[in-house]
Amino acid sequence: MRSIMRFYCLLLAFLAAVPFVVRAEDGSQLWLRFSKQGKPTGTVRITGGESTDATLMLAKQELQLYWKGMDVILKLDHRRKELKDGYQIRQHGNQVHVVAGRSVGLLYAAYHLLRLQETEGQIPNAGLTEIPSYDIRILNHWDNLDGTIERGYAGHSLWKWEELPYKLSSRYEQYARANTSVGINATVLNNVNASSELLKAEYLLKVKALADVFRKYGIKVYLSINFSAPKNLGGVSSSDPLNQDVQQWWNSKAKEIYGLIPDFGGFLVKANSEGQPGPQDYGRTHADGANMLADALRPYGGTVFWRAFVYHPTKDDRAKQAYQEFVPLDGQFRENVILQVKNGPIDFQPREPFNPLLGAMPNTAKMLEFQLTQEYLGFSNHLVYLAPLFKEVLDSDTYANGKGQTVSKLTDSRGHLGRKTAIAAVANIGLDTNWTGHHFAQANWYAFGRLAWNNNLSSVQIADEWIRMTFTGVQEFVEPIKKLMLESREAAVDYMMPLGLHHLFAFEHHYGPEPWGDIPGGRPDWMPWYYHNADSVGLGFDRTVNGSRAVTQYNPSLDKIYGNISTCPENLLLWFHHVSWNYRMNSGNTLWSELCFRYDHGVQKVREFQKVWDRMERYIDRSRFSDVQAKLRIQTRDAVWWKDACLQYFQSFSRQPIPYELERPIYELEDLKKIKLPMGHHN
Ligand code: GCW
Q1: Which end of the chain has less neighbouring CB within 10 Å, N or C?
Q2: pLDDT at 423 over 70
């Protein structure tokens, strides 16, 4: 007995001596780790709403469980339409007054209060008003019906189609809660490479079951559709959008869906892209296809997201094709169609200029599509915080109608055609315990939600909030980790493809480097050489007026900047120019030396991240600490692999030494060329 007592005393003494209380964690709680300890101090009252309103009850419940501040009054005032999904928070004496025009606004406000609490923020004296930047803040899941996820690196799909609609996994609700806590209000459940099956009655019941779970969190469900569904499923002889039987098929399908899910959001469509069917199969345009679906959804208030990611192997510079395809259709789309445009003209590369379509088509509603899943950024092995990439795109000036017309201004709710506005991101979520594979990839889900809610937030602020809620508020942890996160995207660009290089990825899986990649007879626009154009003279893709002329798709003021080698930003130099190896860069280095310095810099940065991380051991739980530590090792090894592969390969063209002050290659190029990873998938 005594020895047991002594053991406990020692244990207590030990616990008291541990500088920071560290609890066992597996990342499953995300940024919602509100402690139940410490009694909630205030009462929460609701005015203006019904107790049958599940969303309102949820807002109240979250505060009752976790809010430790003063009394809160949640007021629903339907007249406050200008607030949209937003809210006002004010402090009155020793009460917090919250007003919203919709019940979901009060739920968002509840999460705002909890965020303030967890990050030790304050309600400003004058109060605060939040109105979201976009109406529709949506995740796109590339989840297949067999449970696999295209470009998914965090395990299988959350959606258990075989168990639905009878069995509801507890993760459905956790997923909805996490989204709502950052302002996401919509989700596309399935892959844009869509199976027609999902539109069958039996699957729609499963979709309904999910929609029923998400509803009280204010999340609407959308589906990706296969354009050939009428033919594949419906016994119609074609899927021609101008054929009345086909139109009828979609009209009755829409009716069927809304009969089950009255608040169904609408359709996302990938058509005539990478082998998917579409209106062009029948000699029709993208507008014909989109409008047919828009007409079917219109009676119920549904929206069509029509993707602009369209390119053909036989045509011009791939970077130009979406613009060529869509600009002639400006003004032809129905009011409830939004053109969904990837942030860059190629495909979610570590760095691309903004997609020129975003600055064009003034009479068409457009939205951004980002990618959270790190298809081109080291999967869930590399720590890459994406908010700086998102901000770079949002803040890009398109110069459409003069200076200051940023991508965000042209796509968000600041008077944009008076229509619904939206922003999308391809999800990075799967069944992994921590949802995203890498603990730090949670920050990208978080950052997307926060920016979709308020595109004025800075990357720093978002990182700061996320770190405090996900790990700890201890300054010694927050500051260095924030710095690391903010530098991580540039580091990845440097060790993978600096100075505007792009698509040097290995075929199919896109994980490692393969600048030499070539598949005889394969699509040239899926081959790295198509993009880097290395030769004895230099490196890069000439997209100026002397080359592919892609630069002319930008506004003339920008075209001038990008098109001139001496004014083109160096981080996009090889995107727009074929540059000679001895060209003098701003640093005074030649292009070749600068390239070497950049690759080396990327590697050195990741080595530094390892050192920074190892110092953090005492501030956080053991399991997340060692998970991240292990992943940083992989990232550093990969960074060296990237550097050695790319530099030695390009050196076979430049025929110049790697500057002598830099770390020497350690891998043989010939060995690197033999690496074949066992990860399947096309292009
Ligand atoms: O980047 C490419 C991916 C494909 C993807 C496609 C798209 C869903 O490699 O896997 O397909 O983009 O966005 O449609």
Answers
A1: N
A2: yes
Say if residue 142's pLDDT is above 50.
yes
How many Å apart are CA 478 and CA 468, to the nearest integer? 7
For ligand 1, the distance from its centroid to the CA atom of residue 498, given in whole angstroms, is 22
Rounded distance from Cα 189 to ligand 1 centre (Å)? 16
Quick check: is 165 in a domain?
yes
Query: Is 275 found in the same domain as 210?
Result: yes
Cα–ligand 1 centroid distance for 427 (angstroms)? 13
Distances 298 to 247, 292, 302 between C-alpha atoms, Å: 13, 10, 6
Atom of ligand 1 nearest to the CA of 348: 1
The mean per-residue pLDDT over the stretch 577-584 comes to: 98
Residue 394 burial (CB count, 10 A): 22
Radius of gyration of the chain (CA): 26
- Ligand 1 pocket check for 150: Cβ under 6 Å: yes
Supply the CATH number for residue 243's domain.
3.20.20.80
- Please say if the pLDDT value at position 683 is more than 50: no
Catalytic residues: 274, 347, 375
Termini Cα distance of the chain: 67
Parallel, antiparallel or unpaired: strands 87-92 and 44-47: unpaired
**Structural domains in the chain (count):** 2
Decide: 309 in ligand 1 pocket, CB within 6 A: yes
C-alpha angle with apex 456: 453 to 458, nearest 5 degrees?
Answer: 105
274 with 381, same domain?
A: yes
So what's the pLDDT on residue 417?
A: 72
pLDDT of the residue at 467:
98
Tell me which H or E stretch contains 136: strand 136-140
Helix (H, G, I), strand (E, B) or coil at 494: helix
pLDDT of 598 above 90: yes
Please tell me if the CB atom of residue 153 comes closer than 6 angstroms to any atom of ligand 1: no
Judge if the beta carbon of residue 311 lies within 6 A of ligand 1. Answer: no
Q: For 316-321, what is the mean pLDDT? A: 95
Question: Could you list the residue range(s) of the whole structural domain that residue 420 is in?
Answer: 136-454
Span 214-255, pLDDT tens digits: 999 999 999 999 999 999 998 899 999 999 999 999 999 999
Q: How far is the CA of 426 from the centre of ligand 1 (A)?
A: 10
Within a domain: residue 20? no
Of all protein residues, the one whose alpha carbon is nearest to atom 1 of ligand 1 is: 347
pLDDT mean over 260-274: 98
654-663 pLDDT tens trace: 999 999 999 9
How far is the C-alpha of 205 from the C-alpha of 468, rounded, in Å? 40
Tell me, yes or no, whether 554 lies in a domain.
Answer: no
Residue 279 maps to a domain: yes
Residue 193: CB within 6 Å of ligand 1? yes
Ligand 1: which atom is nearest the Cα of residue 150?
Answer: 10
Cβ of 548 less than 6 Å from ligand 1: no
Q: Are residues 119 and 141 in the same domain?
A: no
Whether residue 242 is found in the same domain as residue 120: no
Considering the domain architecture, whether residues 59 and 185 belong to the same structural domain is answered as no
Which residue's alpha carbon is at the smallest distance from atom 2 of ligand 1?
Answer: 347
- Torsion region of 401: left, alpha or beta (phi above 0 gives left; psi -120 to 50 gives alpha): left
The reply to whether 124 and 219 lie within a common domain is no
pLDDT band at 418 (very low <50, low <70, confident <90, very high): confident
Together in a domain, 377 and 363: yes
Distances (CA, A) of 309 to 143, 345, 357, 392, 593: 18, 8, 11, 20, 35
Last residue in a domain, options 454, 479, 507: 454
- Pairwise CA distance, residues 422 & 186, whole Å: 10
Which residue, 130, 165, 191, sits at the end of a domain?
A: 130
CATH of the domain at 78: 3.30.379.10
Alpha-carbon gap, residue 318 to 532, rounded angstroms: 13
| Ligand 1, atom nearest to 276 Cα | 14
CA 461 to centroid of ligand 1, rounded, Å = 31
